DNA sequence: TTGTATGCAAAGGCTTTGCAGATTG
DNA sequence: CAATCTGCAAAGCCTTTGCATACAA
């Protein structure tokens, strides 16, 4: 299987370890959110994370507050796939490869794109005087399934 | 001056022409919005467009409704610079070059990036079965002004 | 015990929608 | 006249915040 967003399915124990390493309390909620995000094959929105919590459920505000902390520690990465809300995936700490996504504009399915060489662009931008450059590159298209439906 | 987002400052008349060409009514509001977006050196949010309308002012809901129509006709392009809301700029019809942006994460200033060669990525994605591929590439960094402030 | 986390309720920002009246072609 | 557009008010969605209570270290 190629199209998983990361192979780091964190176990409860690994999640707890990661929390401790980052000076965060090992609460049921934090562990559950971390496991949910790490298990997902595609990046999840806050609402989707909330839905996935099942038994360990908590208020949506707690999800957002937790995501803020995880972002600060770079445990997770916030993505913007042009949908009008953010998605989250495990950050470089747990999963170590930089990558991008393709989202189907018809069905919303999200796949992973591995390769990335933005060095040409980044050099150009640093010549403009910028530092700490980050790029945000995502693709949309119409996937093969949806192409067939359209016929 | 290099860092304008487009050189197509539409006059009232050109704006009216563009509307007719696209089968849209030539209302005061539509013309005003089109002129405002075309005059701006940086992409504008709906709220910013609304603020710029001055005498020709209208309800913010009308701005959004108009933007939807302009998007459908590809008169304008909707951008997502990771701010949590959308920005709009004149589309390929009026302004004819494809480009990207750098946004300073400190001061929010937005500049234009001209060059773009995503063909390598797009080939890869079309091999995955996608069609009608579009990419969304934007940069953030810390601009030279803000770098100085941080010292 | 001290600081952090949480639930609940409320609010804020951006965007959409319903409806009735006004405007356009 | 028919179709489209508009203002107003309300609501929807995503996200944040205040406060009092509960939990972790």
Examine the coordinates and then state which fold CATH places here, giving the name of the CATH topology of the largest domain in chain A: Arc Repressor Mutant, subunit A
Give the averaged pLDDT of chain A, no decimals: 81
Oligomer: homodimer
Give the name of the CATH architecture of the largest domain in chain A.
Answer: Orthogonal Bundle
CATH superfamily of the largest domain in chain A, by name, is: Winged helix-like DNA-binding domain superfamily/Winged helix DNA-binding domain
Shape of chain A: globular
What string gives the helices and strands of chain A in order?
HHEHHEEEEHEH
How does the helix and strand content of chain A classify structurally?
alpha+beta
Whole-number count of domains of chain A:
2
- Biggest interface, residues from each chain: A-B, 36 and 36 residues
CA-CA gap between termini of chain A: 28 Å
* Total count of helical runs of at least 4 residues of chain A: 6
Radius of gyration of chain A: 17 Å
Helix proportion range of chain A = 25-40%
The largest sheet of chain A is:
3 strands, antiparallel
Q: Got a strand count of chain A?
A: 6
**Can you tell me the residue ranges of chain A where pLDDT is under 50 for at least 5 consecutive residues?**
1-6
